[in-house]
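Task: encode each sequence below as structure tokens.

Item 1
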Amino acid sequence: MARKESISKEDLLNAAFKMTKEQGIEEVTARKLASFAGCSTQPIFRNFENMEDCINQVFERALAFFDNYYENYYKGSHVPFVNLGLSYIAFAQEESNLFSFLFTKNVNADYNLYTKLNGRTGAVKTEMSLAKSEGVASPEAIFMKMWMLIHGAACMSLTGDYDLSMAETRIQLEEAYKAFVKR
């Protein structure tokens, strides 16, 4: 009779995601994951081709988590790219390990910054459409200028060098957008 599997693939993914969220992706190794999940490494390699496969599935889960975070983030600005920027910076502050995993590491070559941000929600396309509806001739160029500022602020928060409140950040982003559009 075959032994009953006591830990499922979903259990392992949940454990790997929780480890990534709490400790960072660098800590998710086969042995550490097994210890964290309370099993041997055997179920890991029975459920995943290898650790890269596991990490890629955690990456997909982290992307879905960010999409959900953005969708539920308060959208108080009517200025294009500001709400997305605020949620991105807040995500870096609140979920630093997941932010670092998604946006500062090249884990999955199938995803560039645009595809990660646009996600399943179409967040960037929505913001570009909003800019276009305001008469911006090249929303893509404005997006790149805004995103350099936004990503810089988010990365500064990872190092503890960002001390603006979200209200101050909103004002800065709105002013930057207006300055970029005027040129």
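Item 2
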Amino acid sequence: MESPNFSVHQLETHLTKDVNDSHVNGNLTVVWRDWDDILPNHPKMVYLNTVNPREIKGPHLHKNRTTHFCCIEGNLVIIVKDGKEFHEIKTDAKTPSLITVKNGIPAAILNPTSNISKVLVLADIAWKPNDNEMINVDFENYDFKKWNTK
């Protein structure tokens, strides 16, 4: 899925093996490498964001910052308002993807489950307290209640 204002990239995952007997002991997911072409500007900030069960963060937009999301635990829905159209991007930790929302594009992060979800966030501009870089917006005509949120 891609638009000039947002994109979704499936991420590369590799099995990891025990050093003694080579049994599979987990996996490694590549979220970002400086030589990959999926991020035009290298991240200046990386942080972990949690979303409580049945909660919504946003909707809001960032005036200057492009944000990249990767769900690392649980399930999330990233709702992007692209012009007059809403896009619901479902993501989870089992099928890792990197969702990019460009600056100036309103979005919300929604956890439709009964467990806490975690999202790794990469941003091309570092956040500073009181920088007034974020604007809360209203998603008129969008039915958040269909997700059984609070």
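Check on item 2: The mean pLDDT is 92. Residues 114 and 134 are 28 Å apart (CA to CA).
End of task.
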